[in-house]
Amino acid sequence: MLAGSMVWWRIAAGDDWTVAVAAAMLLVGLPGILGPTVSIPIQVDLPATALVVFGCAISHYSMIAGIAVFAVAAMIRETAPIVAGLWLWSLWPLVALSPVIVAAILVRPGTDPLGGEFQRIADHPIRTALEYHAGRWRDGWLMVAPWGICLAGLYGADWRLLAVIGVAYLQLLVATDTVRLVQHVAGVPLAIAAATIIPTNWLVLAVVAHVVWWRQPERI
């Protein structure tokens, strides 16, 4: 669903089909999109991101229908409408935060079912985020290498793409994970940018080099 929606969205946006397919392949090839082994096949990131991309495609025809899809995505992962707003660079997707607001009012979470350490992470997000990332803020294998060929999208990047990437990395100040978080926020626009900037004749080679892991990547 993620790959198909990406192709549909980019063709609807006016991209050539080769660029659309390449963008989809670059996106699904990111290690953080697949996520850590512990969360396969049950997770919230992948289905929520797939729905947001699907909603972005639909939004080209009807923003109301797109918002409805974003609202469903928000019931899987609360930040989905914010991510949609960043990708479309529009405030309309934020309307889909309504289910999240209702849930925040009506639901009172209990203790973390995974135990004490996870409860400490929930209670002290900034403190634990800094602990888990201590000594790794400039670790290229963690912070940069997992992007693979998508790094080509940084060439001539406009300020909106840089803003999305900035928001993606700011999450690390309040969360203990890294790759899956930043790639589910910035992976889509960076994959689009890379597929657009790489010459058409090089796209197949770029995709092949990207989807194969030359070294076991960081995925969490």
Percent of sequence in beta strands: under 5%
- Mean pLDDT across all residues, rounded? 95
Rg result: 17 Å
Question: Unreliable stretches, pLDDT < 50, 5 or more residues?
Answer: none
When the domains are counted, the total is 1
Name the overall outline. Answer: globular
Succession of helices and strands: HHHHHHHHHHHHH
Tally the beta strands. 0
Main sheet summary: none
User: Termini distance?
Assistant: 22 Å
Structural class: mainly alpha
Query: Helix count, per DSSP?
Result: 13
Helix coverage percent: 55-70%
Description:
Helix 1 runs parallel beside helix 4 (45-59) and helix 4 packs parallel to helix 12 (179-197). The two termini are 22 Å apart. The protein has helices at residues 2-12, 17-28, 31-34, 45-59, 63-74, 80-88, 98-106, 116-123, 125-133, 140-143, 159-170, 179-197, 203-211. With 220 residues, the chain is mainly α. The longest helix has 19 residues, at 179-197. The mean pLDDT is 95. It contains 13 helices and no strands. It has one domain.
Please outline what is shown here.
It is built from 13 helices and no strands. It has 220 residues and is mostly helical.
